[in-house]
Design brief:
The protein is of the alpha+beta class. About 65% of the residues lie in helices and about 15% in strands.
Length: about 600
């Protein structure tokens, strides 16, 4: 808005200010209309609610006084001289007069009207019956003990209600006065604001001419003093833009001429900063320490702080690295680790003499190369070698294990056919056969470390897979004190049920072993757009911090009896499913793993 206003001509600015002031003054009409609408609403409220309530309450107050007089007269005359006819006639006539004059009873007074009708019902029904049987004593007793107390209560209620109505009427009156006062104050505020806008706009418009001229004069003095390339900001009026453009062109041409002189120096500095090497140069005589961009990336920009560290020899972090930097010796290609907030690195460091043009030693040059990726590649090669060994062992083990499993499977199949249904359920024969089949699948999947098998993908519910695993775990010895809590959203997923079952079996087994067979395992899930997340949490002591970073590496385990292959196999299975297995957190309170699987396309469309 400010930039747009500055580009306007003086004539446009003046017209815009006049238009804004007109809008300010015109806005008062909207406020007046709103005030009139509010007063109209108050008037309608008075007509439809407050005044009818006041009339009816006054009428009932007078009517109850009349009825009280009629009742007292009847008590003194033993209900003679047409008492009932007089009461009923008075009741109907007074009701009709008020209805004709002020309309029906307002809805807010219906409960009070009902109480008055009940009071009249006492006379027209109960007292009438006693009088017709000439039981004047009972009628008098009913009037004194029932009717008159109710009448007094109604009189009190009517008095309180009428006071409330009077207060409401007074409030409406006060609100009308308040609306008028608010409208007047708003009018004064708008007028004041319009005047202030006019004054400020007048000042700014006048300054828009004098200030750019003063600014141009000051910038010209700076350019004349050698600040070549200094540009005038295009904040002035349109009328001054041509002059500003000419001055800017002159300044840029002066800068181009000056840059021609220093281009060689800049070129050499760019070459030095473009090198992937971190270079630290130290000159003994001036004690000047300089770093190229790569060195600044890892060591920071504060050359003086780095120089103090080298001189004082106090290294709190990366001691081996800083010792090599401060060393006066000449050395080549030494591998040293370096730790920072951004991550862990490996550097190949070297140090050589710094000589001047007379070939005199005036300092030293320390340079280092980031070989982190190479180091990680070496580790991956080592890991691949381990996996190859595991594959070779797995192939031999699979053959040896399958022979006894075939015998067991044969006997279990024979028992399954020979035993009755009750006996098969008693000895869990179907479950044993099913888990024997799973053992065969696990043996096959161990070979995934060297030659992963393609998963047999199909639409499956994860809840069904976990429900197949838990009965076996619950029946295992030493797991009686483990509590399982499941809260899984039933979403169809495209996966290999047997391979995913092995993933969950490995994770749950690890949790139970970490808790020493006593604790709680919670499995819950959530879903976002395109992904299904499953969390497996336990209440164990957690994974040692030194192992967390490489938790998925083969043969890495904190258990005496563990092989260190479970999580590696699980992660390999998740890779074949285009999913992820990650360690979310691990502490003394427990460990949480997260499994992420893609949701099929048709399900994502439904969601």
């Amino acid at each position: 808005m400010k930039e747009w206003f500055s580009k306007m001509t003086f004539r446009s600015k003046i017209l815009s200010v006049l238009l804004i002031i007109t809008i300010f003054l015109g806005s008062f009409s909207i406020i007046v209309i709103q005030s009139l609408q509010e007063m109209n609403r108050i008037s309608d409220d008075l007509s439809n609610n407050s005044l009818p309530e006041h009339f009816w309450l006054s009428h009932w107050e007078q009517e109850l006084m009349s009825k009280e007089y009629i009742i007292e007269t009847a008590l003194n005359t033993d209900f003679c001289c047409g008492f009932l006819e007089t009461y009923e006639r008075h009741q109907s006539e007074s009701e009709e007069k008020v209805s004709d004059a002020h309309g029906e009873v307002p809805e807010s007074l219906h409960s009070l009207k009902r109480d008055i009708d009940l009071l009249d019902f006492t006379i027209t029904n109960n007292v009438r019956g006693l009088i017709e049987y000439n039981d004047y004593s009972a009628a008098a007793n009913l009037v004194e003990e029932g009717y008159l107390p109710q009448l007094e209560d109604l009189q009190s209620m009517i008095t309180l209600k009428r006071d409330d109505v009077i207060v409401s009427l007074e409030g409406h009156t006060d609100r009308v006065s308040s609306i008028i006062n608010e409208a007047l104050w708003l009018f004064l505020m708008i007028m004041t604001l319009a005047i202030l806008v006019g004054i400020i706009a007048s000042y700014r418009i006048s300054a828009g001419l004098t200030k750019p001229v003063d600014e141009i004069e000051g910038k010209l003095d700076q350019i004349a003093s050698g600040d070549y390339g200094l540009l005038l900001e295009n904040r002035g009026q349109i009328e001054l833009q041509s002059l500003t453009s000419s001055i800017n062109k002159m300044s840029l041409r002066l800068k181009e001429s000056f840059n021609t002189i220093i281009n060689d120096k800049v070129y050499h500095e760019q070459i030095l900063n473009s090198l992937p090497l971190g270079i630290v140069t130290y000159e003994k005589k001036t004690e000047e320490l300089s770093l190229n961009e790569t060195a600044k990336k890892f060591l920071g920009n504060d050359s003086e702080a780095i120089l103090d560290i080298i001189k004082q020899g106090i290294f709190t972090e990366n001691k081996a690295f800083w010792h090599m930097v401060s060393s006066p010796e000449i050395y080549q290609n030494i591998k040293i680790p370096f730790y920072s907030k951004e991550g862990d690195y490996y550097f190949l460091v070297s140090q050589s003499e710094l000589k001047d043009c007379q070939d005199d030693v005036i300092g030293k040059v320390f340079y280092f190369l980031d070989i982190t990726e190479t180091e990680e590649l070496e580790k991956k090669i080592q890991q691949t070698e381990k996996l190859a060994l595991v594959g070779e062992l797995s192939a031999g083990a699979a053959h040896e294990i399958r022979n006894p499993l075939a015998v067991i499977d044969g006997f279990l199949s024979l028992m399954n056919k020979s035993l009755s249904k009750k006996e098969r359920e008693q000895f869990h024969i179907p479950l044993l056969i099913k888990e024997l089949e799973r053992i065969n699948v696990i043996i096959e999947e161990m070979l995934m470390l060297t030659k992963p098998s393609a998963p047999k993908m199909e639409i499956t519910f994860l809840e069904d897979i976990i429900n197949d695993i838990l009965p076996l775990i619950n029946d295992s010895l030493g797991h009686e004190d483990v509590i399982f809590e499941l809260s899984i959203e039933r979403i169809p997923l495209y996966m290999d049920a047997e391979q995913i079952k092995q993933v969950f079996h490995n994770l749950i087994r690890n949790s139970i072993e970490a808790m020493a067979g006593k604790g709680e395992v919670t499995i819950h899930s959530d879903a976002d757009e395109g992904n299904y997340h499953i969390y497996i949490e336990d209440t164990g002591p957690g994974i040692p911090e030194k192992l967390q970073k490489n938790i998925f590496s083969p043969f890495l385990t904190s258990k005496d009896s563990g092989t260190g292959l479970g999580l590696t196999i699980a992660q390999r299975i998740m890779d074949t499913h285009n999913g992820k297995l990650t360690l979310v957190s691990s502490s003394e309170k427990g460990t949480c793993f997260k499994i992420t699987l893609p949701i099929p396309y048709h399900k994502k469309r439904i969601m």
